[in-house]
Amino acid sequence: MKHYLDISNVGIEVKTDSGPFRALQDVNLKIDKGEFISLIGHSGCGKSTVLNIVAGLYGATEGGVILEGREVDEPGPDRAVVFQNHALLPWLSVYENVALAVREVFKGRKTRSEMRDWVEHNLALVHMSHALHKMPHEISGGMKQRVGIARGLAMEPKVLLMDEPFGALDALTRAHLQDSLMEIQNDLDNTVIMITHDVDEAVLLSDRIVMMTNGPAAGIGEVLDVDLPRPRHRLELAEDAHYNRIRQQVLKFLYEKQRNPASAAVENQAQGEAKNSENRDGVAGDDRKDDEAA
Ligand SMILES: Nc1ncnc2c1ncn2[C@@H]1O[C@H](COP(=O)(O)OP(=O)(O)OP(=O)(O)O)[C@@H](O)[C@H]1O
Ligand SMILES: [Mg+2]
Q1: 3 state SS of 124
Q2: Cα separation of 93 and 81, whole Å?
Q3: C-beta 255 within 6 A of ligand 1
């Protein structure tokens, strides 16, 4: 069966000062139209590299990516990317940042007034209608991120690629944006690949969670179906046994099966020191938050 987006046998070796480095090996992932996929894994495992290969920004050393029957070999407007640090052009207003992308994509297909309506419509989706003519330096980080998402959506891409889109935001703003994204997703059914470090975010938003193994030669460790009905509400889910089971499975993968090599080394060292001391009860704790993977 043909899949909408087919990432097959992707591997990549990059040049570094100390010689070639194999970042990814045998990455296989088939994604259907309208699926929302989260990529999760420890820092440095290769999540952004996967996303950049799908975006056409990096070329795979082996394997490749096929999107709706066409091989991906360069960046294109059918794959919009939303970065962690809202890459807005600082000299353009909120409206103009989105309009620039819309003109590029819809040149010759929409009239000027259709384009204007489309820009305004997408900014309304992310609740930014009140700030159309503000400059990026006049709005908050969360608002900039909303504009970045509006720009991505306005391009009507075949796949929306998001690299930790809410990673730089405070918890409350992040929750608001997650809710907006779920609302938008209910209406538009976009095909999305989103990288996140946040386990709750992954479970709340995704149809499937793709969990990556640690590098070098990272790959896909496990894929988890998130078969929770939609619409999803964070407060109700907090007490939902099935939600919590899925959440546990992700945490188990990250902290038992794929323990962060750096934190494992710290623990080993601390345990060694504890053995040498008289106080045998002093076991080094893991000081990471239990819901963040890096
Ligand atoms: N162009 C490059 N040159 C050298 N090494 C690279 C390059 N791109 C990626 N790497 C290496 O590949 C590995 C994966 O990097 P990547 O940025 O994909 O990780 P990540 O999972 O996105 O991490 P994070 O969660 O910290 O963003 C890392 O070890 C990184 O140093
Ligand atoms: Mg990354």
Answers
A1: helix
A2: 19
A3: no
- Of 64, 57, 91, 48, the closest CA to residue 10 belongs to 64
Alpha helices in the chain (DSSP H): 47-55, 94-106, 112-125, 141-154, 171-188, 199-205, 234-238, 241-252, 261-276
Ligand nearest to the CA of 23: 1
Kindly state if the Cβ of 45 falls inside 6 Å of ligand 1. Answer: yes
pLDDT tens for 69-127 read 999 999 999 999 998 876 899 999 999 999 999 999 999 999 999 999 999 999 998 89
How far is Cα 209 from Cα 222, in angstroms, rounded to an integer? 8
SS3 content of the chain, % helix, strand, coil (to 5): 40, 20, 35
With tokens 């002093």, the residue in question is 282
pLDDT digits (tens, 9 = 90+) for 178-223: 998 998 888 888 999 999 999 999 999 999 999 999 989 999 999 9
Q: Encoding tokens for residue 190?
A: 């976009």
179 neighbors 120 (Cβ within 8 angstroms) = no
